[in-house]
Design goal:
- The protein has 383 residues and is an alpha/beta fold.
- The protein folds into 2 domains: 230 residues, Rossmann fold (3-Layer(aba) Sandwich), CATH 3.40.50; 115 residues, Rossmann fold (3-Layer(aba) Sandwich), CATH 3.40.50.920.
- It is 39% helix and 17% strand.
- The strands form 3 sheets. The protein has a 7-stranded mixed sheet with strand order 3-2-4-5-7-6-12, with helices on both faces. A 5-stranded mixed sheet has the order 9-11-10-13-14, with helices on both faces.
- Strand 6, helix 7 and strand 7 form a beta-alpha-beta unit.
- Helix 1 runs parallel beside helix 7.
- It starts with 31 loop residues before the first strand and ends with a helix.
Length: 383
């Protein structure tokens, strides 16, 4: 597949094999069918990903397979590491050397990467990490789930750090958010998590084959040798408490900037909505259908879809639900995002949860029934 050329970079790159070339490129069709995993990988390549590191795990294996084919074609670095621990730490080193890095895995593999994520956050290294979530806890299942919400949004490593988390609900949106993830990572020098689920990774949808490129990142901090300049140091170790506190204060200031500037959300049918569904990813697609069915039955329902799970769009949700009689967090989990929903609503509206676990997916009819239950409960309470 042909992608947009990446602008030439002035900074050094990791050494890779020369691009594999063939005949003339065929004309691009208007739309092509792609799996979510494949589209995420191709979007990263178009955005200028210099190096990919990963380890096979379902349901994100196709992402790794796509990169194994395409990265050598582009003359870039692809490494199937011996473990998730190795993959994420290779990503740490490559990012410190100035590479634009993508790492991907699924839930159990992401857990193994927690220590390195904390190191990267403490070292202020821009890396994009894709989690295609599966059922858990433990090995769980390979079915789609959303049980990693708390892990992603609350910082699953140690220390006082946060990372931006972006959650697409379609393959086309995933393509856009891959590029946005690199932009945010490099703007604030921070790891970013793209949080998908097994259905989004495995499903196929028609997408435009024109993927957007991205300018090279600034290079005034990377470790590229100190010839002709003062040495640079990238580290997360600060042995003097006074030094570490100042470092952590600077990180908190960065997180405050992210909270102020990088909130993303979308709303559907929220005008006059009496019951507001809050959902992301595949659950949002189910919720969208439920809203349509509920409205056809005379229940004024709306959908609020967080796209940035951290920073969570609390103010926007609070305003969207201001006149509602009930809010329902629809999740493929036991209830993880509902905690942020309740914090956003601040008790102004009753908040309910509807979810399935273990790879099970809520159905639109189940969600409509949950809406009617929430409506009846709020009516009994006198709202």
């Amino acid at each position: 597949m042909t992608v947009l050329d990446r602008p030439s970079a002035t900074r050094p790159h990791l050494v890779a094999s020369p691009p594999v070339t063939g005949g003339e490129a065929a004309p691009l069709p208007d739309r092509v069918l792609m799996k979510g995993n494949e589209a995420i990988a191709e979007a990263a390549i178009a955005a200028g990903c210099d190096a990919y590191f990963g380890y096979p795990i379902t349901p994100q294996a196709e992402l790794l397979e796509w990169m194994a084919k395409r990265m050598p074609q582009e003359g870039r670095v692809f490494v199937q590491a011996e473990s998730e621990l190795a993959a994420i730490n290779m990503g740490l080193g490559a990012a410190a050397a100035g590479a634009r890095v993508l790492v991907s895995s699924s839930s159990p593999g992401i857990s193994l990467m927690a220590e390195a994520m904390s190191y990267m956050a403490g070292s202020r290294l821009p890396v994009v990490l894709v989690n295609v979530m599966r059922g858990g806890p433990g090995l769980g299942s390979i079915g789609a789930a959303q049980g990693d919400y708390l892990q992603a949004t609350k910082g699953h490593g140690h220390g006082d750090y946060r990372v931006p988390v972006l959650a697409p609900s379609s393959i086309a949106e995933a393509i856009d958010l891959v590029r946005e993830s690199f932009i945010v990572a490099e703007r604030y020098r921070t790891p970013v998590i793209l949080l998908a689920d097994g259905i989004l990774g495995q499903a196929m949808e028609p997408v435009s084959p024109t993927f957007r490129s991205l300018e090279p990142q600034p290079d005034d901090w990377i470790l590229d040798g100190a010839a002709g300049r003062e040495p640079r140091v990238i580290k997360s170790l600060h042995l003097r408490p006074e030094d570490l506190e100042q470092h952590d204060i600077a990180l908190q200031e960065t997180y405050a900037q992210i909270t102020a500037n990088e909130i993303r959300w979308a709303g559907e049918a929220l005008e006059g909505a009496e019951v507001v569904l809050v959902a992301y990813g595949t659950a949002a697609r189910v919720a969208r259908t439920a809203v349509q069915r509920a409205r056809a039955e005379g229940l004024r329902a709306g959908l609020f879809r967080p796209i940035s799970l951290w920073p969570f769009p609390s103010g926007a949700l609070r305003e969207a639900a201001r006149l509602a009689r009930a809010v329902i967090s629809v999740e493929m989990s036991s209830g993880q995002m509902v905690e942020d929903v309740r914090l956003a609503i601040e008790g102004a509206v009753p908040v309910f949860h509807h979810g399935r676990m273990g790879g099970m997916v809520p159905t639109p009819d189940d969600v409509v029934a949950a809406m009617r239950h929430a409506w009846a409960t709020s009516e009994e309470a006198g709202r």
